[in-house]
Design a protein that fits this description.
Strand content: under 5%
Structural class: mainly alpha
Shape: rod-shaped
Largest sheet: none
Order of helices and strands: HHH
Helix content: over 70%
Number of domains: 1
Number of helices: 3
Length: 98
C-alpha cells in the first residue's frame, strides 16, 4: 500500500465489498459528526447557567473527542478498502499464474 493509494475514488468503486465498506464508514462518519455537533450545541446552551457549567465542559470534551474520531474513521475506511483491493489483486495473480 502506497500513501498515494489512499482516498482514491476508484478504490471505493472497486467491488461490491468496497462499496459496502465505504457506505458503512460514511454512515458512521455522519453519525459521529451529528453527535459532535449536538454535544457542542447542548454544551453551549448549558454555559448560560453556572450550575450546569461542569456538564457543559464534559459535553465539550466528548464533542472534541468525536471530532477527532471523524478523520480516524476515514483513515481506517481507506486502509480497509485498500486491503480488499490487495486481496483481490493477489487472487487475480494466483488465477493467472501457470
Amino acid at each position: 500500500m502506497r500513501p498515494t493509494d489512499l482516498f482514491r475514488h476508484e478504490t471505493r468503486q472497486q467491488s461490491e465489498r468496497t462499496k459496502r465498506i465505504y457506505a458503512w464508514f460514511e454512515l458512521a462518519h455522519t453519525c459521529v459528526d451529528f453527535l459532535a455537533a449536538m454535544f457542542f450545541l447542548v454544551g453551549s446552551v448549558l454555559f448560560f447557567w453556572t450550575a450546569t457549567e461542569t456538564l457543559a465542559i464534559w459535553l465539550f470534551m466528548v464533542g472534541s473527542v468525536l471530532f477527532g474520531v471523524k478523520p480516524t474513521l476515514k483513515v481506517i475506511r481507506e486502509v480497509r478498502m485498500l486491503r480488499v483491493g490487495d486481496m483481490s489483486d493477489l487472487a487475480d495473480r494466483e488465477d493467472n499464474e501457470p
